[in-house]
Amino acid sequence: MTMSENGRTKGLLFPECRHRPSAREAVLLLALAALGLAGNYLSVSMFFGVDFLFGSIAVLVAVRLSGALWGLPVAAVAAGYTFVLWGHPYAVIIFTAEALVVGVLTCRFKRENLVLVDAGFWLLLGLPMVWVFYSYSLGMDPTAVQLIMLKQGINGIFNALIANILLHGLPLERWIGRGARKARVSLQQSFFNTLSAFILIPLLLTAMIGTRAELGEIKGEIREHLGDEVADLDRHLNAWYGQYAAMLRLAVANAVRGGLEHRDGNLTHLEEVAREIPGLLKVQYAASDGRIVLSYPERDDRGVPYAGRASSYREHFARAAGGAITLSDVHDDEMTPRAHFTIIVPLDGAGAGGGFVVASLAPDHLNRILIPESHNGALRMMIVDGENRIVGSSDPAFEPMAAFTFGSGGELVALGEGYYHWLPESAATLPEMRRWKRSYFFAKVPLSGTEAWSIVVGVPMARYVDKLRADTIDKLVLVFVFSILGFFLVPLFSRRLAAPLERLSAITERIVETQGMESPTGWPRSKVLEVDTLTRGFKSMVDSVVKAGAENRRIAEDLARLIDTANAPIFGTDMEGRVTEWNQTAARITGYAKTEVLDQDLVKTLIPEPYQASVRAVLDNALQGKDTANYEFPLYTKAGERVDLLLNATARRDTEGNIVGVVGIGQDITELKRAEAQVIQAAKMATLGEMATGVAHELNQPLNVIRMAAESSAERIEDGEIDGEWLRGKLERISAQTARAAAIIDHMRIFGRKADETPVEFHPRDAVEGALGLIGEQLRLLDIEVETVFSEPCQKVVGHAVQLEQVVLNLLANARDAMGPKGRDRGEPRKISLIVEAPDSNNTLRLIVRDTGGGIPEDCLSHIFEPFFTTKEVGKGTGLGLSVSYGIITDMGGTLEAVNTQDGAQFTITLPAVERRPVTAGAVAG
After folding, report:
1. What is the pTM for the complete model shown?
2. What backbone torsions phi and psi does residue 839 show, to the nearest 5 degrees?
3. Would you list the DSSP string of 829-842?
4. pLDDT greater at residue 195 or residue 329
């Protein structure tokens, strides 16, 4: 496997199924692997090794989200636990193959329904694989293989259903960054999931509950069966050794009744009872002190007589002295070297002081009793002594005196109250089902009337396991058949149920395509009341929408005509600044027809170079939802003429509220600008007229100097006292004063002409000094002190220096008139302060003009900036100076305010410093 340049894997599976997982997807795959492992660990068991696993839920989610390539590692991790659970690798192979096939098919053929794909896998590939592996590789019997096939198939389909529900109910694809792939949930798929769940889950739960209940019934039945068999065997054995005890007691009593001296007669009685009791090896009569009195046979295998010897069962006499029959453990000894057990029967009043009958029996006869009781081997029955040695057994393989050990060769599970379950070998070496079939349920109960012996009865599980498996197979066949039928019938039902809704969806799409211009036909009909009601409601709504759409189109057409014929120029642009709307007024003003500007870049096509950056900034602000009002800028018509516009720009949004462009509504202010310029020029000329006296004084001083220098020079020439150096000094003085007069006249000429149309950067200090150059001498002659305070360094502003000079000149003239000659006669303070302050935190610069003229009447403060409003005497002013000044400062983006101070009035001009606005800005937004 290799990687291509775009990060997609090459050479494995189909191209549609290959991609490189993102970081989030990798985290999700790791989480699914852990969940798959946990799902298999937390299995639900039906019975002896038939376990339902849930790990493939996470595996199928992984292969559906990330494809088979990345789902296979998840499948390997999750399925790997089955090797621990069942001790063979075949389930790992089958479950990994399931992930591979389902992942490839769902990816390749774009199948959303995991259930149908997974059901196809199990029918065509999964079940045959189970048959091959479990029949031939594991050698299991056909019934067990059938059971495992059905269980695994149903288990796999159930897990696919749960995975399908999770994939359609959880936003997993959106979480890993592929939300566009599946943004909505299919109603038809939801129907399928719901109906399939209602079919499969109840059937499966019923089968599992029924099987587990049957297993519980089987265990109860076995326990009851064991109890009955133990009770029957206990009664039979008690009757057996009770009968033998009676025979022995009678024989010995008869033997000793005639006296012990009749030895031969006594032995005859013992010999007779020995022949009547099968398996009796020897019978003896022992006195109370444990000494053998009589014995048959008389001698042991070595020929040594028994009579007179101490009985080897003396320790049992104490227990038998109370009248109870006592059974010894199975053993061999010197007197009787073969395996045997002994019955000790007390004899009350026999001979002198009673005594005991001691009879040794071979276990063979006991085996012959157990075999019929075990139903000829159907049950396993044993008698064990107090040392857990076998006394007798229904199975010849268990020899007397052999140790009986619970759990030997396998595993023993204690069930309480003497009941046990024995399973052969271990789960690691033998499949659980085979272990159960070879297992036994045991009961070990003390033989009543004895202290040493116990009855052991074992019931083989093979018959019960076969019955349980057969019943479970019947249940699972029903579950499997009904599930498969349901999975293929449910889509038909869900498709039929969803068909009216899909028809409604198609009608909706047609409405969208026609934009609601026509009423659709072919409305679906359904027998489902709710769906039919929805259709009628939807039809009514659509009819209303069509009518509303027609009305909206009429309104839209009216608005379009209104916009197209509006007196204001209106345009629209898209997100890239290309023209999308252009009304007739815009075409008339610019000379560009609509067809000439559509899809053209508005800024590059119509806006002059110095203003392109600022206009584009306005459009960009509108695209970010920031409206701009009264933005002033020029543009040039097709004929090359300049037009001044005042623009309002706002965002244009679609029906969902998303910004898709800009709408601009303009106002042609070309004539207004011309009128304003004329008013400013008129006010400027009026100011010059008012300054004429002051200018005359300014010019008078250099002229007087020139005259005096010329007269002095003429007198020296007449007297013949011409000194070259002295004359050079006079001429230089005349030249300097002439230059001064020329500068005053030149400044008046500059001040009097119209302002340049393009704003520039300049120092406010220059405007202040220029105004003082025109009126300073006049103020000096009026004894008005002028104080100037300039910040260092002086920050620049943007605008017209001559216009700001005109504003300062107007404010100085008003201050001069407010202090007048009358104040000088009264000796009042006469001072004007001009202060230029550095920019503050808002980067604004202030120019303050303060006087000591007594201030402005309070009732006039709110009107002084109105046109033609003046507080001067009739004939002393036009009433335009402050109004024009206010307009000039506003156009520069600043403010002009007036307040009264303790001694007079104060006018404060606030302007943005040059750093706050770009050098290329063509105008100021108001």
Report:
1. 0.51
2. -60, 145
3. --EEEEEEEPP-TT
4. 329
